[in-house]
Amino acid sequence: MGMIKEFKEFAVKGNVVDMAVGIIIGGAFGTIVKSLVSDIIMPPIGLALGGVDFSDLFINLTDIEYDSLAAAEEAGAPVIAYGTFINNVISFLIVAFAVFLLVKGINNLKKKQEEAPAKAPEPPRQEVLLEEIRDALKARS
Q1: What pLDDT, on the 0 to 100 scale, is given for residue 71?
Q2: Structure pTM?
Q3: In the CATH hierarchy, which fold is given to the domain comprising 2-140?
C-alpha cells in the first residue's frame, strides 16, 4: 500500500504535470515542423534542383523497377528512403534551433536576474534609532 501512496504523491507533483504538458506541446510542435519541412521548405528546394521530390527519393535494393517510394513500399521491396531521411534531418535542425533559441532566452533572463543587485531590506526603525543614539553617544565622548 505504501508504494501506491508514494506513486500518487509523485504523479500529482508539479514537475510531473509540467513534464506532461511539455511532452504534449513538443509532439504538437514536431507535427508543425514536419509539415513546415515537407510542405513549405522542401518543395521550393526540390523545384530549384530540377523538380526533385525529396520525399520520393530512394534506392531500390531489388532488381524490380518501381515508379515511386510508395509503390516500392506497397510491394514490400527493401529500399533506402534517403529522401525521407533528408526531410527528417531538416526537421531535426529546425527543432534543435528552436530549442536553442528557447534555452538561450531563458539563460539571458537568468543572467539579467543575477546581474541585478539585490537590494538589502531596510532595517527596522528601532535599529535605526539605536544606531543614531549610539553614534550620538560616541560623538559626546
Answers
A1: 92
A2: 0.58
A3: 1.10.1200
